[in-house]
Amino acid sequence: MSGPISLEPGGSEQDTLAIRLAGARPPRRRPRWALDDATLAIRLPRSGPDEQAVSELAAELADRIGPAVHPYEVAALLEAEGLSASVISERYGHPNLFSLASALYERVPRSFPEPAPAADPWRRPDTLRCLLRGVLFALPGLAYLLAAPLWDTGGYAPALIVAGLVSWAWGQALGHRAHLRMTAGRREAGRTLLAGSPAGAAVATAVAALPADGGPVTLVAAAQSAYLAAAGVLLVLGRERLLLAALSPLLAGAAVLPWWQPGPVLRAGLPLLALLATLTVTGWVLRGALAVPAAAGATRPRLLWSLPYGLFGLAAGVLVLLEGREEPYAVIVLTLSMGPAEWLLYRYRGLSVAALRATATPTAFLLRSAGILGLCLLAYLAPLLPAALLTGADPVALLLLAAVLWTALLLQAFGAAWPSAGICLTAAGGAGAVVVFHLPPGAALALPLGCGAAALCLSACALWLLGRPAPHA
After folding, report:
1. What is the dihedral of CA 435, 438, 440, 444, to 10 degrees?
2. pTM for the complete prediction?
């Protein structure tokens, strides 16, 4: 081999070593554009990593490298980005993927961003549905308004009251059991309601027959019990609009009372038509629920789990009855307020979840939870004060009773049913005994004192049980 060895400067050949081939005579110089056809390009090795290129890559991927807890995670990221071994070697000067990943891991400081907050299911309650439920609780009273001239209200009242208390207690327990079965499937809840509702209506009618001595009032109690059972089914299954449509005859009849007095046929026929419509709609809804495929492996909850809900329903019925003896219009106010009360239960849970995310210590959460409880109670009781004044009811007794009912429902919403049932039963038993046996301090103070003590106990239980982060997590 002979001939000069030349290192061509400039252009794309500045890093190549051109080796001239020897010939019989000195070869003619080839043009520059053809030089690559007769040369062997040899890449000069790097002396080390290209720190600038590595820094640029680290800056580009900093948001994804920061949360990594090991260089292997960075290596997986680089591999996902499509960096090949040749690119890592030629562009960044590292021998392999793991070497570059370790360099990037060391350059980027660790940063662990908070995960995105989960969606809060309690943030936006269905306001229209809650208000509609409150109206539906009060609408059946129009039946008594229409049919009042047809019967002796004084003689019929005891049987209807007893039947109503039994139906209320039974409906509360059955509703809780149906909601437990709803977790397994709509068919299972429908079967529970199909078996429990007729049984509850039969029990309430049988109990009402005792004070009625088997007279015609038993038929009225049976109709009342049948309606309460059917309405409970529709409310549990979320078919409030259908129940409102079924009660439209009552609305039509009550709307014309200020201007026109219907005859006995219409006074008796409109409530009967509303009852038949409610029963028909309930049967149709239950048929649809039973048509859903059965859930596999569903277990039946214990009957004892629903007992405290039934006892609370009985105690609440007695307390409302005692209030209604003195102030009948207060019962209407309380009934209508059950819709806003349900809405505030949703808001309490939403505000508690927000407080859980905003506080860092148990003490701070307890203080904020106490503020949330006070705020919700104030929002519930504030509209009742002018309503009590407008109806002429005693505002103290009405507000204390409302506070008892709402706080007890709050505890039940979190599964603390036995404390609320026990406290409400004690208050109802004490106030009822004073009224029945005419004990001092008398009926006028028995209900406010009993409800005041119960409200304090229930509020303390709510702070004790719900002032911890665990029930809201």
Report:
1. 40
2. 0.76
